[in-house]
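WARN no homologs supplied; continuing
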Amino acid sequence: MAADRRIVYCLLCEKPHENLSSHLKKACMKDNTEEERNAELTKAKISQKEWTRVGRRWEYHEVDSLMNEEDPLRALIDRLKSKGFFIVKDPSESSPAEQRQLLQDVTPWMRSMVAKLKTGVNVATNYTTQFRYFCMGVLSVVYNKSLKSIETFKTAGWVDRQQTSSGVTIQFSDNSVACTLRKEEEEWFELYFTKIRPLALLRQDEYMDDEGCFFLGQNGGPIANTKTDLQRLWKFCEQTTQSSEPIPEDTQTASGSCEQTTQSSEPIPEDTQTASGSCEQTTQSSEPIPEDTQTASGSCEQTTQSSEPIPEDTQTASGSCEQTTQSSEPIPEDTQVAGESCEQKTQSSEPIPEDTQTASGSCEQTTQSSEPIPEDTQVAGESSSSSALNTTALDQFETFVEMFPVTLNDEPPTKKRRMSAGFEGRDVYDKWRGEQYKMRLNYILAYNSISAHIGRHQPTLDKVRLVISKEKWHANLPDLKDILQAWISEQKTSIEKDGKIIKAVSEQKWKGLQIQDFGGDKGKGVVATMPFTKGDVLCDYHGRIIPASEGKKLLSEQQSGEMGYLFFFKTRGGASLCIDAQTFPCECHPLKDTFGRRMNHSKKKFNVKPVHFQLKFPDGCRDTILFLASKDIQCNDEILWDYGVNKTSFRGEGLDLDWLDE
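OK structure emitted
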């Protein structure tokens, strides 16, 4: 009887053992660590006691309710399992031992997928899904991790993995026992992390949050049902091992089905292709980030100050958010018609009237027009004759346009036709061409093949030429310089009104980034968990905005050698402000360690740069520093930016800090 009381069922092979510790060491967990075996032993003993305490007792109504289920037998089996019973030879499920064997049988297939992913060969979506299932199966069967542990495994647990002589040790967020993956298993997980997971992130909609989970569904969200996913894996393994022929990549495997489908002949978009073993977005911009999206890069004394003044034409009064948009209407010199001068007589040199200036706290767009100022906006003191001339010119042009409508493709009326209609001067002719020039400029920016670039990526010269070449325009062609200038304004406005960016700033939820502890003197930093293209917004420098004088006071109170998290910059109105990320955590996000304050410095290898924006929140404009990619960034790259400091900064205390010049 004493021996019977020592019998404990193994939860892996589902068999009773008098000495479970010895059994685990010799059989079911012979490749695991002592710590992992002890954890499994404790788990088995708790399960045994729980079954003894409550598993044997059933309420009648509980059994009766199962009879009303659509599949009473399946309902009864599931309820028995939930109470700790073992159902042997259940045809719908494989035993742990059988599952382990299935994984071993399909490992050659897994290695073939590894070879394809490493060489950049395109892999069908259903096979990348099975790749994820396989990694989940390794944690479940080989390392005995619960469904909850697998579902809640975070990217932080992966990027902070610890190298050992036999592989890597990973930690789980549910505080379960860590496990050590073998070298080959680490390669599988790393390929999923760098090649497959980023594609799921790219498919996210604006309302989806990956919650930092390592395993993601095809929609970019956390996996919803690990148990079902693993059942699909076992079905796929059985089909693969039963077939003597390799399963074609276009064979869909979902919910246990194995249907033949036809692969799309459409090429995979360039921004999702992988090459040279990396997960890159190949949509690159050859143009530099425009100068007017200047960096508010930091400078001096353990802080980040703006070293570049904001242009005067974007100044705001009393913290207001004005956007001054310059019209690109003037006709470029290189668009003149042979034999005729093309004077730019449509520009107005009149200053913007004072009564149109933005008041405090407002968010208006002040547009500098190259049109003559209408009569009712003339400044006091102008002669009535000047006003009358302007009115006459406007009426004359309106009459001219009625006779010769401005169109996208028509040629302007000839001199003979203008003279016949009673128009002797060139003013209306030049203005007609200016209106057509503006129309063509907007058409090019709105053209499908270029519009994909607006807001993030500059239209290239070749792309613009391609669009123009398709039109039958012989003169009055939009100049590339004007197109880029118009794009700059569009990009700035697009970012400042982007609801996704505003929401990310408000909630501090930025996709594709992870804080990593590098250890040693370097400490924490930020790495990319998905590719970014030059010009993409990564995150903001988050903290409370205070006057620069208050920031300098905080700076003076820092101890020698202490790292500061103060970002000094100037608004468009010239006001000196400071973002205080020193006060941590911030009041609005007390449970978050924000990315901006954790990014490390590099003077030579930076891949992002800070840019000042005035985001248009529902309650008004807010000065915000956003980090934009200054080059293409790949998965696992550390995010670095130039603090604008050097070894002579920090009041002379940084002479021995060699990393400042790296």
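The chain has a mean pLDDT of 74.
OK
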